From TrEMBL:
This is Xylose transport system permease protein XylH. It holds the Pfam family BPD_transp_2. Keywords: Cell inner membrane, Cell membrane, Membrane, Sugar transport, Transmembrane, Transmembrane helix, Transport. It is found in: Cell membrane. It comes from Streptantibioticus rubrisoli. The lineage of its organism: Bacteria, Bacillati, Actinomycetota, Actinomycetes, Kitasatosporales.
Length: 388
């Protein structure tokens, strides 16, 4: 508790605002409508958040650089349209169309990263131009019909409609997650102890693991009360865990954070800053493409409204609300999960109560503003304590 209090006083809020916001939103909507925390609604919520959540994970990596990618919504719509045209109109095998869509997303991200990192065009301008250009290209690719329906028995359709009905799947995933969390924490403790730097006591590791176990098994129990473990949620969690490992445990991830903390110092340390920046934008484009496929799967079609600007706004908002900093150097893939949970919870509650979408936008905008204000105040506090 002393360490926790010290970090709060130093402005290191982490995921605390997102957790508190989620608790408040769930409490309010449950009071207003008792169906909000029902297994059916929570299961649907866990699937609805995946598409936008994947895009938000890509935004996290860009924000770590201290930059922004405004084109992710248009990229997701374009790549979904590419998949639909290749698979439905041209008859290519589904897996080929999926790979092609992902490659298009990676290429677009790499191209935008090149203009930013090599040519020197600000990322805001490059991706704003991309927002317009890729949206126009999407409309051109879709053609006169404007909408392409997907196969209802295909792989993409299964992304958000496949469930593991066996209760062992959800409980097994929960158990695996708790064990992995404890082992990773224990290994980190051993390394820090060997290096003679401050480390967490075993009692704290046990307490943290117990909290994770309560959340994981509670979620598994709720999911098993409806249809079981959704395939979409499983894929999302695997990607979040994998990308979190890349960010925190690899040289590449540490270089990304280093650039966000100070690009010039990183360059003088011998790191190819431009190459890392281009690769990060390529990651953002790839995850935008993957998110676009999940969003298309959810509605079983690709249309002119795919990849709207609201999608981009929600993705950026999810990253910031979850705890990522607009100033660079701070954020984790888990931030996207927490942030999109807040946004999608608002949307789900509004839908249950029959409230207009316009009100949802206003509430989401207010939550985003509050998150940015907290981010600014947190950074100011860290600077005052010599931590930033």
């Amino acid at each position: 508790m002393g360490e926790f209090t010290r970090r709060l006083r130093g402005g290191e809020l982490g995921s605390l605002p997102g957790v508190l916001c989620t608790a408040v939103i769930w409490t309010v909507f449950q009071i207003l409508d008792h169906q909000f925390l029902s297994p059916r609604n929570l299961s649907n919520l866990s699937v609805d958040l995946v598409g936008t959540g994947l895009i938000a994970v890509g935004i996290i990596f860009v924000l770590l650089l201290g930059e922004i990618d405004l084109s992710v919504g248009s990229v997701s719509g374009l790549t979904a349209a590419v998949f639909a045209v290749l698979n439905i109109n041209d008859g290519l095998p589904e897996w080929v169309a999926i790979v092609a869509a992902l490659l298009v997303g990676a290429a677009i991200g790499g191209l935008q990263g090149f203009f930013f990192a090599r040519v020197g065009v600000p990322s805001f301008v490059v991706t704003l131009a991309g927002l317009l250009a890729w949206n126009g290209l999407m409309l051109h690719v879709l053609g006169a019909s404007g909408t392409i329906n997907l196969h209802d028995q295909g792989l993409v359709y299964a992304l958000t409609n496949q469930y593991f009905h066996n209760t062992a799947a959800a409980y097994g995933l929960a158990a695996l997650g708790v064990v992995m969390f404890f082992l990773a924490s224990y290994q980190d403790r051993r390394r820090r102890r060997a290096a003679e730097v401050p480390y967490r006591p075993l009692g704290e590791l046990a307490l943290r693991s117990a909290v994770v176990a309560v959340v994981a098994f509670g979620a598994a129990y709720v999911l098993n009360q409806f249809e079981g473990l959704p395939l979409a949620l499983l894929i999302f969690l695997v990607l979040v865990v994998g990308l979190d490992f890349v960010q925190r445990r690899t040289k590449y991830g540490r270089r990304i954070c280093s650039i966000g903390g100070g690009a010039e110092a990183t360059r003088r340390a011998g790191i190819n800053v431009a190459r890392v920046r281009v690769s990060v934008f390529a990651i953002s484009g790839t995850l935008a493409a993957l998110g676009g496929l999940f969003l298309a799967s959810r509605v079983d079609s690709v249309g002119q409204t795919s990849g709207s600007s609201i999608l981009m706004i929600n993705s950026v908002a999810a990253a910031v609300i979850g705890g990522a900093s607009l100033f660079g150097g701070r954020g984790r893939p888990w931030s996207a999960l927490l942030g999109i949970l807040v946004i999608q919870s608002i949307a789900s509650g509004m839908l249950l109560m029959g409230i207009q979408t316009t009100v949802q936008y206003m509430i989401t905008g207010g939550v985003l503003l509050a998150a940015v204000v907290l981010d600014s105040l947190s950074r100011r506090s860290q600077q005052a304590h010599g931590l930033a």
